[in-house]
UniProtKB/TrEMBL annotation:
Residues 37-87 form a coiled coil. Its main location: endoplasmic reticulum. Keywords: Coiled coil, Endoplasmic reticulum, ER-Golgi transport, Membrane, Transmembrane, Transmembrane helix, Transport. It holds the Pfam family Sec20. This is Vesicle transport protein SEC20 isoform X1. InterPro entries: Sec20 (IPR005606), Sec20_C (IPR056173). The keyword Iron does not apply. GO terms for molecular function: SNAP receptor activity.
């Protein structure tokens, strides 16, 4: 049961780190976003989903901490939960600031377009392409991290399955040991009984031999010394 809890805690921590990285990458995308507002709205929707997943995992980790048997392990996990909550609050603050910065940038660009016309539009297009390339590189890096985290989660699940199989094997071995112990006890009783019977047989043989010798001596005495 303790091993299973440890695996669950490790999986929670890994996914919390993964969601935290994804949130940070999306916040950076918002900072780099130059519009339109629909693009910003789409990014904010993704951030909300990631925050939801992150909050759920933190709650699971907190519940696991409360279920720990050792007080030291419980307090250590609760401290980790508190750190994750602080990091999430920090991300939420960065998210709000990134939204404000992005909206200001979009407003400034729209105002500049009114005055500069086509030249600014072409420049904005170039900037958007550059930002798109940067965002694509960040997204690719994040996908690599996500794949690595998924592999670690899968390995943890396999380890938990191995532990469960080992537990079943130990239980089966314990049952076999109990069966063998009963057989050994029965054998011990039979050997003890056999030893007792052998001792009785020896005693009877000795008594019969003594009686025989006494009879022989008596007959010899009567034949050789009839006057005694």
């Amino acid at each position: 049961m303790a091993a299973s809890q440890d695996v669950h805690v490790r999986i929670c921590n890994q996914e919390i780190i993964k969601f935290d990285l994804e949130v940070k990458a999306l916040i950076q995308d918002i900072r780099d976003c130059s519009g339109p507002l629909s693009a910003l709205t789409e990014l904010n929707t993704k951030v909300k989903e990631k925050f939801q997943q992150l909050r759920h995992r933190i709650q699971e980790l907190e519940q696991s901490a409360k279920e720990q048997d050792k007080e030291s392990e419980k307090q250590a996990l609760l401290q980790e939960v508190e750190n994750h909550k602080k990091q999430m609050l920090s991300n939420q603050t960065s998210w709000r600031k990134a939204n404000l910065t992005c909206k200001i940038a979009i407003d400034n660009l729209e105002k500049a377009e009114l005055f500069q016309g086509g030249d600014l539009l072409r420049q904005r297009k170039t900037t958007k392409e550059s930002l798109a390339q940067t965002s694509s590189a960040i997204t690719e890096s994040l996908m690599g991290i996500s794949r690595m985290m998924s592999q670690q989660v899968q390995q943890s699940e396999e380890a938990m399955q191995t532990l469960a199989n080992s537990s079943r094997t130990i239980l089966d071995a314990n049952e076999e040991f109990k069966s063998m112990s009963g057989t050994i006890q029965l054998g011990r009783k039979l050997i003890t009984k056999y030893n007792r019977r052998e001792l009785t047989d020896k005693l009877l043989i000795f008594l019969a031999l003594a009686l025989f010798l006494a009879t022989v001596l008596y007959i010899v005495k009567k034949r050789l010394f009839p006057f005694l």
